[in-house]
Amino acid sequence: PSRHIHSQHRTTSFGFKTIPEESKESLVKHVFDSVASSYDLMNDASSLGVHRLWKDAFVSTLKPGRKGPLRCIDVAGGTGDIALRILDHARESYADRETTVDVLDINAHMLKEGFTRFKKTMYHNTPQVSFHEANAQDMPHSLFKDDSYDLYTIAFGIRNCTSIPAVLKEAHRVLKPGATFACLEFSKVNNPLFSTLYDQYSFSIIPLMGTILAGDRESYQYLVESIRKFPSQPVFAQMIREAGFATGGDRDGGAWTDLWGGIACIHTAVKL
Ligand code: SAM
């Protein structure tokens, strides 16, 4: 399968190969088909476990506009990392066993990993969690109704979508007025020295780990590259506003919160 990816690449200034936008959707599907079974292991290895801290911070800082129980949707939810944290947080902090999370992902393999994982939890076979194969850019209106969710989350997913504005438009559609949009994504590192070190690490170590742990260098190369192409914090915040959301002030600590100097970033906004 990795040969298929290879044939669609062209070379960037880093010497790695870039994927043309037009084939991005099928390629992203292929990448996540390929990495699904090793995804959780690779996440831990490539971030040295830090993605867990970021996800914990993401969920614990969410401030939905109203008290629970909440109707949540976790888009590009993959193996269910965020959904599980939302449900645990509701239960542990508010003794809430009625909050629900609909996990949506375009990739059936990733969802299957999530479903299997939830089997070992108390949420399995309860109305609290459900898994749906769908495109974040065009969610079926009959299932994902207008003005129906209290909280929309998307973690490390929006950069893999072909059209960010289409995702934001759908997020806006399904949220209730006054409800919260929250996105956790890799972002732009501000400090130039740190940025150089981070580039060295991610462009050499992560594809190498992909080769060793998952036998798939190119998919991990793609994932690193997609991080570099994602808009900077202020540009993304502006896109969120253009979709009809209100954000805090246009800075770190306002519209967004940088994690680890901007390696990752949380954007939150409220549907107007
Ligand atoms: N949110 C999970 C997490 O934080 O561990 C998974 C993140 S994983 C890096 C990105 C996910 O985005 C993959 O599961 C992929 O299938 C999904 N994805 C990519 N494009 C999508 C789209 N257009 N609609 C829905 N999901 C998409």
From TrEMBL:
It is an enzyme of class 2 (transferase). The keyword Signal does not apply. SUPFAM superfamilies: S-adenosyl-L-methionine-dependent methyltransferases. Pathway: Cofactor biosynthesis; ubiquinone biosynthesis. Keywords: Membrane, Methyltransferase, Mitochondrion, Mitochondrion inner membrane, S-adenosyl-L-methionine, Transferase, Ubiquinone biosynthesis. S-adenosyl-L-methionine binds at T79, D105, N135, A136. One of its GO terms (molecular function) is 2-methoxy-6-polyprenyl-1,4-benzoquinol methyltransferase activity. It comes from the Eukaryota. Gene3D superfamilies: Vaccinia Virus protein VP39. Methyltransferase required for the conversion of 2-polyprenyl-6-methoxy-1,4-benzoquinol (DDMQH2) to 2-polyprenyl-3-methyl-6-methoxy-1,4-benzoquinol (DMQH2). The gene is COQ5. Belongs to the class I-like SAM-binding methyltransferase superfamily. MenG/UbiE family. It is found in: Mitochondrion inner membrane. NCBIfam families: MenG_MenH_UbiE. This is 2-methoxy-6-polyprenyl-1,4-benzoquinol methylase, mitochondrial. One of its GO terms (cellular component) is extrinsic component of mitochondrial inner membrane. Its EC number is 2.1.1.201. It comes from Serpula lacrymans var. lacrymans (strain S7.3). InterPro entries: SAM-dependent_MTases_sf (IPR029063), UbiE/COQ5_MeTrFase (IPR004033), UbiE/COQ5_MeTrFase_CS (IPR023576). It catalyses: a 2-methoxy-6-(all-trans-polyprenyl)benzene-1,4-diol + S-adenosyl-L-methionine = a 5-methoxy-2-methyl-3-(all-trans-polyprenyl)benzene-1,4-diol + S-adenosyl-L-homocysteine + H(+). It is a peripheral membrane protein. GO terms for biological process: methylation. Component of a multi-subunit COQ enzyme complex, composed of at least COQ3, COQ4, COQ5, COQ6, COQ7 and COQ9.
